[in-house]
Design brief:
Blueprint (H helix, E strand, L loop, with lengths): L2 H4 L1 E7 L3 H24 L3 H22 L5 H25 L3 H24 L10 H52 L4 H24 L11 H18 L4 E5 L4
Antiparallel strand pairs: 1-2
Helix pairs in contact: 2-3, 2-4, 2-7, 2-8, 3-4, 4-5, 4-6, 5-6, 6-7
Length: about 260
């Protein structure tokens, strides 16, 4: 093994590439249609749906942390579980607990800031390239789950503010384009821009998912939720087989 390869530590999360963001948006959209399939189409309700997806998420996170190397299918299954849990959890907080979109978004933003702050204080970095130990993975998945829930709440808030699902999706697409522009043309921290983009792709997926499956009277296309979810899942799997997913790397001694 040469000096270059021996100086790198492989992460158990994927490198951040264009393919990563394409699959991430598909996963967040699937999370919306999948969560709605259980809570609305099957009429489980938000509490039971949240409990179901929380259990699935815990099992997958434990499997992800126990794995010795990066497994693309396991990683993205865990992301989908986090986003379906985020969908039902945000709906539970916004609607069943009576704190509204603004209250739910503010609470989740504070929780995400606390999670990232504790991670940074403990490890000295919140870069995904450093996700190489069980403790850092725990911080990573906690931040991912909270960010997914926050994104759902933001998507619902914007869509229900009068913009609707289609225009709401355009708002978040424009915000992501702005982050991409900042990445290309400025020296703003890549770690900060990653988390900004990660949060924003969730409400984009939420509004697109709602646009696909909500009734026409509410501004949606009224597509069958199970069919939409199956198509999105098939698209994700096709991307995983068509495009190689490599793990992120961290140089020894870097943060």
């Amino acid at each position: 093994m040469n000096n270059t390869s021996s100086s790198l530590v492989l992460s158990k999360v994927p490198a951040v590439t264009l393919t990563f963001w394409i699959i991430k948006i598909a996963a967040t959209t699937l999370g919306e249609t999948g969560g709605d399939s259980v809570t609305m189409t099957l009429d489980w309700g938000y509490l039971a749906g949240t409990a179901l997806f929380l259990g699935l998420l815990v099992v997958l996170v434990v499997a992800q942390i126990a794995a010795r190397r990066f497994h693309p299918l396991l990683y993205w299954a865990t992301i989908v579980a986090s986003t379906t849990f985020g969908t039902t959890m945000a709906d539970l907080a916004d609607r069943s607990l009576g704190i509204g979109y603004a209250g739910g978004s503010a609470l989740l933003f504070a929780l995400l800031a606390a999670t990232l702050g504790l991670w940074y204080r403990t490890e000295g970095s919140i870069s995904v390239n450093t996700v190489t130990t069980p403790r850092i993975e725990t911080f990573y998945w906690a931040a991912i789950t909270v960010s997914q829930t926050l994104g759902t709440a933001l998507g619902d808030w914007i869509a229900d503010s009068g913009l609707g699902f289609g225009r709401g999706a355009l708002v978040f697409a424009a915000a992501i384009a702005l982050v991409a522009g900042l990445y290309v043309w400025t020296r703003i921290s890549r770690v900060v821009l990653f988390w900004a983009a990660f949060i924003l792709t969730r409400p984009l997926g939420a509004t697109v998912g709602d646009f696909l499956d909500k009734p026409r009277a509410n501004g949606g296309l009224a597509l069958d939720r199970f069919t939409a979810s199956a198509v999105l899942a098939a698209f994700m799997i096709a991307c995983l087989f068509a495009f190689t997913q490599r793990p992120a790397t961290k140089a020894h001694g870097s943060t």
